[in-house]
Amino acid sequence: MESEKAKILPFYVLIDVSASMSGDKLDQANRIMPQVVDALAEAPILADKVRFCVIDFGSDAQVRLPLCDVLDQHSSLPSLTIRGATSYAAAFRLLRSEIEVNVKQLKADGYLVHRPAVFFISDGEPTDPEHEWRTAFQDLTAGFPTYPNFVPCGVDSANPRTLATLIHPASGPKQMQMYLMEKGQNPADAIAAIAEILISSMLASGQSMAQGSSGMILPAKQDLPAGISAHSSDDFV
Amino acid sequence: MRSHTIGLHEVGPLGGQIGAGGQAKVFLAPAITLDDVAGPLVYKQYKPGHEPPHGLSAVVARRLRMDVMTRSRLDRLAAWPVRIVEQGGAVSGVLMPLIPSGFFENRVLPSGQPKRTLREVQHLFIDPGRAARLGMPAPTDAERLTVCRDFAAALHLLHRNELVIGDINAKNAVFRLDARPCVVIVDCDAIRIKGAAAVVRQLNAPDWEPPEDTLSQATDLYKFGLFVLRCLGPGPMASVSRDPARADAVLAPEGRKLLRASLSRRPADRPTAQDWGRYLDGLLIAPRRQSTPPPPPPAATSTPGWKRDPRTKRWVQAT
């Protein structure tokens, strides 16, 4: 009976906590973590497959829930609070360093590690200079062996054209998608819908993980919740 | 002779939706009763493009041809498709017995939200302390052995009737602890009659792949070995483990030997479900003599309907 190495999917959620997120949007964002925990409590063997991390970003970026088995967490989940501007660059840099450290740690602990999955949720344009966040994104995705599958999600005033450039991989058999709030929707409801997509992706990815699979599955378009549309990178030129 | 196919109009008005998966939705079907099915029925409606090709009728017909005793045993061990439902000459779904309420757990999720959860066997594989903390039962070793024993009995009945389960996995069987049999096999439309092609292409769930490519009764026995190992050796990474030593503490030397043989790469080495049943019976009989008699069967309860709220997609009780 050959012993197999267990395979882990690190799942990162990056949440915008800039000033514009205050109110209902932040309340919904704060519901994401308990919902993830509930979803795993109903499918508890996925805790053998998925590790979850939350990073928030405003003027700076902070790890709010270090990559962990959330069912193992006895302490209460962190509460997100508003912190100024919208630095995409800070978010991308911190994510890159976390992924690097986390993957190294998981491998040292004897696990095989799937390509990390990232849901990036923002309600506005980056406030840092374009060349800065573009360089940070380049460092995260190109020439970084453990680059993540990156799924941008936009609500409210997020710019679809900006977010579309963050879909990674943007093409090929394992291309990712972008999720956008449809016009006229309530942004807080859109965040709740994105949480639903994120959870269904986490469950499907964890359940399907097997040798050779990509480790990141997004829901089919017909299964998306109301008020959200899915786009690929060539939808916005 | 009964027809194994009925029209959708005969099913009558559907009740609340109680489940949804990638290939089908499940609704209560309160308006129809069948002479050969004891309890309430549900209608499993395949999503367009996911209707199984012909062959399902053989699985339905196999049950109808069984003698009454065997059929009632089958119905207690498996949520078997009892009728094919057609609409406009095409298969739209199947009728199946409703899974009894004893196989559900009323629990509170970590967020505080109450939830009625089907007791899939995956809940047996996690650390018992964690299961209890998450509001699920944390069975004792003896209860786990009983679950294995009843699973072996279900598998034996199916194998004796020339059937192949194919996709045994963490979600395709459900358990209870307060009545026997304590295991029911669900999602039976993937079952295959030995010697015939599968209704739905038989697949291996991740972490349940047998050594050989073709699914047969021998791969069922391998997967049953994985079930025993993961049920008797719960904890971190049990759900993906294939190391029989995990269950050594619970199994006497003979059981350890059976488990290692079940996980053999050579199909011919694997013990039958009946071998397992006899061994587990032997383990269970001794302690049971000293214990108090089993409680009377619970009074029949009506199973409340559950449906998905279309907006939140959460399960809510249909009133």
From TrEMBL, chain A:
Pfam families attached to this UniProt entry: VWA_2 (PF13519)
InterPro entries: VWF_A, vWFA_dom_sf
Domain VWFA: 10-202
UniProt protein name: Uncharacterized conserved protein YegL, contains vWA domain of TerY type
Organism, scientific name: Lentzea xinjiangensis
TrEMBL record, chain B:
GO MF assignments: ATP binding; protein kinase activity
InterPro entries: Kinase-like_dom_sf (IPR011009), Prot_kinase_dom (IPR000719)
Gene3D superfamilies membership: Transferase(Phosphotransferase) domain 1
Basic residues biased stretches: 310-319
Domain of life: Bacteria
Disordered: region residues: 284-319
Record-annotated Protein kinase domain positions: 12-284
PROSITE patterns: PROTEIN_KINASE_DOM
Name this protein carries in UniProt: Protein kinase domain-containing protein
Organismal lineage: Bacteria, Bacillati, Actinomycetota, Actinomycetes, Pseudonocardiales
